[in-house]
Amino acid sequence: MSALLNLEQVDAFYGSAHILHRLSLTVQPGERVALIGRNGVGKTTVVNTILGLASLRGGRIRLGALELPRPRPYLAAQKGVVVVPQGRRIVANLTVEENLLLGAANGRKGPWTVPEIYRLFPILQERAHTPGTALSGGQQQMLAVGRALMANPSLILLDEPTEGLAPVIVDQLGQIFNAVADQGTALLLIEQNMSLVVRVAERYCAMAKGSVVAQGPVENSPAGLRDLEAHVMV
Ligand SMILES: Nc1ncnc2c1ncn2[C@@H]1O[C@H](COP(=O)(O)OP(=O)(O)OP(=O)(O)O)[C@@H](O)[C@H]1O
Ligand SMILES: [Mg+2]
């Protein structure tokens, strides 16, 4: 079976700024992978390169059997790869429900529908007709996750989904990520909170200066946590 996502020796740029250097990364169907590293190492640029928002100038990106010489956001969604972007990007003048429907626009048909999202996040149903940006930070993150699920992805790229959220909300999101993964959706979790990483991920890739410099299994134990934290300590 081919990987859902396969980056091979990728070089990526913003204009003339060379950010990713021969970066290789794979996610297999159903796998839960964490992508970790300090601020500014290029984690979001990995996502942006898959979407075509940073320019791919070396190496290759494949989604399943399809090679993407010119990545584009709609190509990723059509192939079942969706992003929950850093900072959430809820559309301000749309309601909660309209934001969810937007997620289905470029996606695939499948089990995730508005009622299913409301079953997963009852608070979104209560706030269905409220402007999306009127929600609290944690609720907006639930909406961003719900919107991604509406595309019925086989892989979700989560870019720092717990940034700035209270511990109780982080715990709740961790449970949701595990529930989604238990249904067979693969996750690439970009995260600075290593205690969440050990609860969700089974494998990690650590980045430094635009490359993956270490990877291995994640162990949910104090020793496993210490190993991961070494990659993100300043
Ligand atoms: N649009 C851009 N144009 C030029 N350089 C950029 C652009 N966006 C990001 N960079 C630079 O690219 C590098 C990698 O940034 P990136 O956002 O991928 O890091 P990150 O690992 O996601 O960091 P964080 O943990 O803070 O989100 C940084 O040095 C950043 O300053
Ligand atoms: Mg980032």
Describe, in plain words, how this protein is organized in 3D.
With 234 residues, the protein is α/β, with parallel strands linked by helices. The chain has one domain: Rossmann fold (3-Layer(aba) Sandwich), CATH 3.40.50.300. The protein is built from nine helices and ten strands. It has helices at 43-51, 73-78, 96-104, 114-120, 122-126, 137-149, 167-182, 194-200, 222-229; strands at 5-14, 17-27, 32-36, 55-63, 66-67, 81-84, 155-159, 186-190, 203-208, 211-217. The strands form two sheets. The chain has a six-stranded mixed β-sheet, with helices on both faces. A four-stranded antiparallel β-sheet has the order 2-1-4-5, covered by helices on one side. α7 (167-182) links the parallel β7 (155-159) and β8. α3 packs parallel to α6 and α8 (194-200) crosses α9. The radius of gyration is 17 Å and the shape is globular. It starts with a strand and ends in a 5-residue tail after the last helix. The mean pLDDT is 94. The protein binds adenosine-5'-triphosphate and magnesium ion.
Task: List its traits.
234 residues, alpha/beta, Rossmann fold, 6-stranded mixed sheet, 4-stranded antiparallel sheet, 9 helices, 10 strands, 27% strand, binds adenosine-5'-triphosphate, binds magnesium ion
